[in-house]
Amino acid sequence: MALKVAIVGLPNVGKSTLFNALTQTAAAQAANYPFCTIEPNMGDVAVPEPRLDVLAKIAGSKEIIPARINFVDVAGLVRGASKGEGLGNQFLATIRDCDAVAFVSRCFVDDDITHVEGRVDPISDLDIIETELMLADLESLEKRTTALEKKAKGGDKDAAQTLALVKLALEQLNAGKPARNAKVDPDDDKAWGMLQLLTSKPALYVCNVEEAAADKGNALSDAVAKRAAADHAKSVVISAQIESEVAMLDAAERAEFLETLGLEEPGLNRLIREAYALLGLQTYFTVGPKEARAWTISVGMTAPQSAGVIHTDFEKGFIRAETIAYPDYVRLNGETGAKEAGKMRLEGKEYVVQDGDVMHFRFTS
Questions:
Q1: pLDDT tens profile 297-326
Q2: In the sheet that 63-65 helps form, which strands lie side by side, from edge to edge?
Q3: Long-range contacts at 85-93 (CB < 8 A, ≥ 24 apart)
Q4: CA distances (Å), 120 to each of 13, 107, 113, in order?
Q5: Distance CA 63, CA 269 (A)
Q6: DSSP bridge pairs for 69
Q7: What confidence tier does 31 reach under pLDDT thresholds 50, 70, 90?
Q8: 60, 109, 190, 326: which has the highest count of C-beta atoms within 10 A?
């Protein structure tokens, strides 16, 4: 299950600097002028997972394969982007293809870095971006309404369901609220997702602060955190500049550098953790002498569904799952110790996989 997150924001808020740090590349040109990103840069990043290293060491695994997360650096959006202003409008389709949106807001003051709006006000920045996405959603929904009404009047049940959801979304958007604020019946979740609304995607507000505020944030990031709480979103404080420096260091240097700044971990870890929580994701492991691997699944997935993440044949032919909880695997020094202590469980089709489970699937081909 590959998670794809769009990095969105006004020009010169630190999006490309953050992207470069996250992907540990210089694929995205970070420059002090608007629209330096004119193609959507994509980066595939390993999800930091300390437990995987522990498991691999115990099992003597030759290879470690972490889960992956994809970041998409979208060109800076500006006021009027939904109507074609700037370069942002062409990337709306890119945002639609992502699972979540990370809104990067500038929460630092630096006279040497220009701001497209001529001031530093992260709440206003977020309003501009959110408004453009809402306008794009409104246009998309209004184009569909007439055709859906005709089909619904003709007795098309699917069209009637979709029309009701379109009206629900329009009600939110016309009230100046993102579609994710709408209360959608669980039975309508799939149809709601099919609307592909930009503002229905889970949102993460990334507060890009100066180095001195990287540990606790500042007054600007505090304001964004309050906005996120009111907007059914999450927020995280990161210094893109620090992250770009951390990305250039080896493991030992990185730990020492972070310690001097009072940080326990890179911002990337916090960002991914918040993204996982936002989308209701968790991790299970497969471990052996050949490889130790992390797999991303949704919270609430059953054992067969989780097996299907590896291969569809595993889900179709599922028999049982040999399961060891991560703490037991570590405490008992691996699979053999867990078996001898009676901590390996045989779980069936109804078992709901827990975060950190170490699993081996039995299936028929």
A1: 999 999 999 999 999 999 999 999 999 999
A2: 63-65, 291-298, 281-287, 358-363, 318-324, 345-347
A3: 86/11, 86/34, 86/35, 87/35, 87/38, 88/132, 91/40, 92/133, 92/136, 92/198
A4: 10, 7, 11
A5: 22
A6: 3, 45
A7: very low
A8: 326
* Residue showing tokens 């009111």: 230
**According to the model, what pLDDT value does residue 10 have?**
85
* CB-based contacts of 272, cutoff 8 Å, min separation 6: 45, 47, 48, 69
Structure tokens at 174: 């016309």
pTM of the entire predicted model: 0.82
Nearest partner of 43 among 16, 65, 63, judged by Cα: 16
Rounded Cα–Cα distance for residues 6 and 235 (Å): 15
**DSSP code of residue 302:** B
Residue 102 has pLDDT above 50, yes or no: yes
Give the C-alpha separation, 166 to 200, whole Å: 12
**Helices assigned H by DSSP within 154-204:** 157-174, 189-194
At 220, is the secondary structure helix, strand, or coil?
A: helix
**């770009």: which residue's tokens?**
244
The β-bridge relationship of strands 345-347 and 318-324 is antiparallel
Q: Taking the CA of residue 38 as centre, how many other CA atoms within 13 Å lie in the half-sphere pointing to its CB?
A: 6
Beta-bridge mates of residue 70: 4, 44
- Sequence-ordered list of residues with C-beta below 8 angstroms from that of 186, at least 6 positions apart, any chain: none
Torsion angles phi and psi, residue 79, rounded to 5: -55, 125
Sole residue written with tokens 């709306």: 92
As a whole number of angstroms, the distance between CA 335 and CA 353 comes to 18
Q: How far is it, in rounded angstroms, from Cα 37 to Cα 67? A: 27
